[in-house]
């Protein structure tokens, strides 16, 4: 049996993190680096990804690469994978973490918005994974983790574009998992509401809405980005080497409603 330090030793591993300059992605990048991984911080936000990579290199001494990437552009994903292999010689894991969606009226969407949400939340993860597969297959305990969402497995008419795309993501990961074992493991984290600063407000939430959601959560708080980073590290680690095709719900216990409502 391995020790906890051995199970969570990421020395020599190379992990690509998409959306790596965002709230959850940047925390994951820092945490993975603290476990010994070399991380590639890939994000549309060029300044953010470069800054996070520089900070990680200073803090952990590990090599980190910050790269501008638009996951909806296949050519840019090809360049990201090539740059990773040029610098580190391999890809051991991928965190497909880009995702976003704004409030939409159920019948207020259109073809363009639905397709754009799919490209951002689902197709980008497919293409990044597909292009990494030849490298992942060569690694021990290669693993891909996806940032899923509660809206992807519950009815979510308020976020019809985002929720439909995230539902597609979950089923795509299940297909990848059954067809790609034992070489590569694929797992999703079904994320509940996590404090990501302005991003939630841009998606249409007001502080009052957030406070109301928090009241119903069993743990009585929103998640912190590190709550998700820890779960990502677990699914990537040797401790999870027999876990594939799983959906790990990390949502503070969810929202509980009594089966015997009094009001
Ligand atoms: N925060 C939450 O409450 C919550 C809940 C459920 C699921 N999630 C999922 O977790 C993941 C991370 O969310 P977060 O809260 O850290 O969000 P965030 O908005 O803080 O970070 C997302 C990052 O993705 C980047 N990005 C956006 N479009 C991109 C593109 N085309 N190419 C590359 N990068 C792009 C942004 O620049 C940003 O840095 C997302 O997939 C999100 O859907 C978050």
TrEMBL record:
<dbReference type="InterPro" id="IPR002347">
    <property type="entry name" value="SDR_fam"/>
</dbReference>
<dbReference type="InterPro" id="IPR036291">
    <property type="entry name" value="NAD(P)-bd_dom_sf"/>
</dbReference>
<protein>
    <submittedName>
        <fullName>SDR family oxidoreductase</fullName>
    </submittedName>
</protein>
<dbReference type="InterPro" id="IPR020904">
    <property type="entry name" value="Sc_DH/Rdtase_CS"/>
</dbReference>
<dbReference type="Pfam" id="PF13561">
    <property type="entry name" value="adh_short_C2"/>
</dbReference>
<keyword id="KW-0560">Oxidoreductase</keyword>
<comment type="similarity">
    <text>Belongs to the short-chain dehydrogenases/reductases (SDR) family.</text>
</comment>
């Amino acid at each position: 049996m391995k020790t906890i330090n051995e199970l969570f030793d990421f020395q020599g591993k190379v992990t690509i993190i998409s959306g790596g300059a965002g709230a959850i992605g940047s925390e994951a990048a820092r945490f993975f680096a603290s476990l010994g991984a070399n991380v590639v911080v890939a994000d549309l936000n060029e300044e953010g990804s470069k800054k996070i990579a520089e900070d990680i290199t200073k803090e952990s001494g590990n090599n980190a690469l910050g790269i501008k990437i638009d996951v909806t552009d296949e050519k840019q994903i090809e360049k990201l994978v090539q740059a990773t292999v040029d610098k580190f010689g391999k890809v051991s894991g991928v965190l497909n973490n880009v995702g976003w969606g704004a409030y939409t009226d159920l019948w207020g969407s259109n073809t363009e918005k639905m397709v754009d949400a799919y490209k951002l939340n689902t197709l980008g993860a497919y293409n990044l994974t597909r292009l990494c597969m030849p490298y992942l297959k060569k690694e021990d305990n290669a693993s891909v983790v996806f940032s899923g969402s509660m809206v992807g497995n519950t009815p979510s008419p308020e976020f019809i574009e985002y929720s439909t795309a995230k539902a597609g993501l979950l089923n795509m990961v299940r297909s990848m998992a059954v067809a790609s074992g034992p070489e590569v493991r694929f797992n999703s984290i079904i994320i509940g509401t996590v404090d990501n600063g302005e991003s939630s407000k841009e998606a249409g939430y007001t502080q009052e809405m957030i406070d109301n959601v928090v009241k119903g959560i069993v743990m009585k708080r929103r998640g912190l980005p590190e709550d998700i980073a820890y779960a990502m590290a677990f699914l990537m680690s040797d401790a999870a080497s027999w876990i594939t095709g799983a959906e790990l719900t990390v949502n503070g216990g969810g929202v509980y409603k009594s089966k015997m409502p009094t009001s």
